[in-house]
Amino acid sequence: MQNQFSRTEILLGTAAMERLARARVAVFGLGGVGGYVVEALVRSGVSALDLIDNDRVCLSNLNRQIIATRQTVGAYKVDAAAARVHDINPQCRVRVYRTFYLPETAAQFDFTQYDYVVDAIDTVSGKLQLAEEAHRTGTPIISCMGAGNKVHPELFEVADIYETSVCPLARVMRRELKRRGIPHLKVVYSREKAITPLEPAEPDCEAPESAPPAPAEPGAYRRAVPGSTAFVPAAAGMILAGEVVRELAGYVEQAE
């Protein structure tokens, strides 16, 4: 019998769809990348989502964030995302957390309840904490590296953090994860060199709290308000979601 996931089921199979329906995925960060992750997960049949973000939708989000519309400006991103999820699949179980994930808030989350964690946040301290918690609990995780100030979505790739190059955020993550004894982290990153915006971006409502604290040493990663497009963060989000869905579904590439 046809259902909303029929087109996916004929590719992945019934058992895979059942695994997706049983899975709970936590998506940390619902900006230009994380919003597309949520979109793809719910459309793929994942039936339990935890959404974590403390930003509200801003006018400047309309150029790239799938949850941003004129109707959602001013709303918490987690609430806008949850409403969109239920418009797509009313049966999806959604828990929302209006908080930024940082070492100070990490205790709110029990990673052992998650089948997968998606890191789509901006703060270095938060990204490191997510990687540490996932490593400690054995929870699968995938992390997005820098997507701002880039214009080539086709250059994103999936790799282990220790195989990355060019990306300044990935460089900082490699160094800090090595210090913490974390041997692996699956990431989506691009070797495209970030371009310099034509003029400095005006801070919007997400900049003051989302930006990571000043680095402790010269040359460390510092995030200014970046330029972005409709297609680069979306591509990164879809790649992240694709990795999660294939792994949770137990998908095995067919031999040609």
Strands of the biggest beta sheet: in what spatial order?
3-2-1-4-5-7-6
Number of helices in the DSSP assignment: 8
Order of helices and strands: HHEHEHEEHEEHEHH
Form type: globular
Radius of gyration: 18 Å
Helical amount among residues, as a percent range?
A: 25-40%
Q: Describe the biggest sheet? A: 7 strands, mixed
Tell me what the structure shows.
- By secondary structure, this protein is an alpha/beta fold.
- Helix content is 34%, strand content 13%.
- It contains 8 helices and 7 strands, in the order H-H-E-H-E-H-E-E-H-E-E-H-E-H-H.
- Strand 4, helix 5 and strand 5 form a beta-alpha-beta unit.
- The radius of gyration is 18 Å and the shape is globular.
- 39% of the residues are buried.
- About 7% of the residues have low confidence.
Question: Could you give a quick summary of the protein structure above?
Answer:
The protein is an alpha/beta fold. It is built from eight helices and seven strands, in the order H-H-E-H-E-H-E-E-H-E-E-H-E-H-H. Strand 1 (24-28), helix 3 and strand 2 (48-52) form a beta-alpha-beta unit.
List the helices and strands and how they pair.
Layout: H1 6-12, H2 14-22, E1 24-28, H3 34-44, E2 48-52, H4 77-88, E3 93-97, E4 116-119, H5 124-137, E5 141-144, E6 156-160, H6 168-179, E7 186-190, H7 207-210, H8 232-249
Parallel strand pairs: 1-2, 1-4, 2-3, 4-5, 5-7
Antiparallel strand pairs: 6-7
Attribute tags:
single chain; alpha/beta; seven-stranded mixed β-sheet
